[in-house]
Amino acid sequence: MSETVADRAALMEQETRLSESPSAVPGTVRPGGRTAKVRRAVLDATEDALATAAFHTLNMDQIAASAGVGKTTVYRRWGSPTGLVADLLHDMAEQSLPAADTGSLPGDLRANAALVHRTLTDPRMGAVFRAVIAAAACDEECARALNGFYRTRLAEWAPVVTRAAARGEVPAGTDALELLRAVSAPLYYRFAITREELTEADAERAVTAALAAASAGAFTGRPGAE
Known about the structure:
- This protein is mainly α.
- The chain has 10 helices and no strands.
- It has helices spanning about 5-20, 35-50, 60-65, 70-80, 80-95, 105-120, 125-140, 140-165, 175-195, 200-215.
- Helix 6 packs antiparallel against helix 8 (about 140-165) and helix 9 runs antiparallel to helix 10 (about 200-215).
- It is elongated and about 55 Å long.
- The N and C termini lie far apart (about 75 Å).
């Protein structure tokens, strides 16, 4: 007899229960094995749901069914839809592409802007980001998770500015995080606030403006510094 979704869910739930610590924080896992497979299946199902519907429609029972995981496992480990979104954001930060190293600050910032543009204009990921931004606007747990996602990404890209300062491309003491924010902020404004079409020209304009501001010392606390 062929294995059914219910059979697979029961097996996954039984093995997950055996592998989990009773004091585990919802959404956290030990690496490898069935536990990691359960987390991957649930987070993929969560991303699928956010890509096709709004956050407020996220349903734990449907996520469990889509992932082929027992409902009690999903409720026990993630607790709520916000727990699912928070863990998805942690996973997205872990899976993000590494920062560029093109040999110049303009090249690195263009790579950064291109990544943001590509993500936000992708039909699937754009929808996912709209959903998590909306969730963060009304839920503190989601807001903290979204903040953590961007802290991780900014820290990943900060060395491009450090290297640029060492090459003399920007003033010493340039705040790397503020410069990187200046690149992505106009793109997110169009994407999330004004809901305008986001083009490659917008990305290039954001880089040009951020570079000009950095050269003028706008991110050192000493505007006009060279």
